[in-house]
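Q: Joint fold for the lines below.
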Amino acid sequence: MKVLQVSEFIEIVNGILRETLSGEVFAVEGEVSGFKVSQGQWVTFDLKDDKGLLNIFMVLRNLTVPVEDGMRVRVFGYPRVYPKFGKFSITADRLELAGEGALKKALAMLRARLEQEGIFDPARKRTLPRFPQRVALVASRESAAYGDFIRIVNERWGGLEVDLYHVLVQGERAPQEIVNAIAQAQGSDYDVLVMTRGGGSLEELMAFNDERVVRAIFASKIPTLVAIGHERDITLAEEAADVRGSTPTDCARRLVPDRRDVLYELATLADGIESAMLEELEARQTILERAFDAPGTWLTGRRTELESISGNISSGVEVWLKDLAGRLVNQARLLQSLDPKGVLKRGYVMLKDAAGNSVTSISKLAVGKEVAIVLQDGEAGATVTRVGSKKIQPKLL
Amino acid sequence: MPPKKESKDIDVAKGFKDLEEIAAWFERGETDLDQGLVKFERAMNIADALKQRLALAENKVKEIKKKFE
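A: Joint structure:
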């Protein structure tokens, strides 16, 4: 019999356990209970089933999925007795969610947390360029999704430069490969980063719900277009992307326009431009014509005006002359009535002295003075024989 | 009166203004016959000059139009 010290014994046991029960050979599946993170780096919980219980120890860094009590998980690692306390536990390198329920639950938790952070905020989403030229495609070379995507893109649009970043799209290594591919693509001058894969079970699509992948998509400087699985599958990566396609085919449709649509649009646009141009030209033509005719119109106006004024003056002169003549006749009549000859005609005479001045008073006369008697048809000489101041009595007729 | 000379240089706007003034003079019933006759003759001269000026302008317009048609 061999006697061993406690620590020696534990060392031997640990050596045997580690050699025979390493994570490559088996995994332990059970329900999580008493999940706890201490000092921000150590994870401890119990893994149990109906009949048994194991302590699990894990470095937080190795935990890539959200875990909470009640979840079914698979733990990969090695069993070990902790020498200081003699406590048996499994040190887990890796933990996977087991069963649809756990996956869904973990997904819901992660989704809630990322949403809180604003990773899915619609306000942060960018629009894709309408005519992308260089595209980074993160997909599996062997997948049907890749073939479908390329085929539809080529059907719709030509001349697109697509660089494939080949990745595994499911399995344990997929998330890291995808994250690396996204990071690598950032170094080039792409218009869009596309990530796609075809349909699968929730478990198969889990790489696109991986927090690292979701964050890489969110952080991409290149606008992102992600289409994973079928219409009904919505992964977190899709939700974080700027644009989501429901399927790889839909993804291609969202990436490039259909050349027939664009050609039709161009034709319509050309027609529109042409008719707008013609309309504009016609309007200018009208302005020109009007300008062209303006001098003639103006001249015609002036000619009419001239005729009108000339007519006014001609008729004005006639009226004016007639008026003048009329006034003349009236004047003449008035003068006629004042003509002394008219009086002489009626039998009156006029006396003039030797100087020819008319004599209108007896005081200018003296006996023996020579005077001239003026009648209507001539004059006669006379000598004054008598001077008297007898008044002439007017005869009543 | 040398209307031919006037027709080339006449200021159209001033010509129309003068004619209007002369027309107004007659309408006022002024009595100075000599002045009236002078004004009338002047009016006829201006009108004739304007007529010729307009005719020239019309021809010029037609000529220019023809050049650009």
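Q: Anything notable?
A: Chain A has a mean pLDDT of 88. The longest helix of chain A spans residues 259-338.
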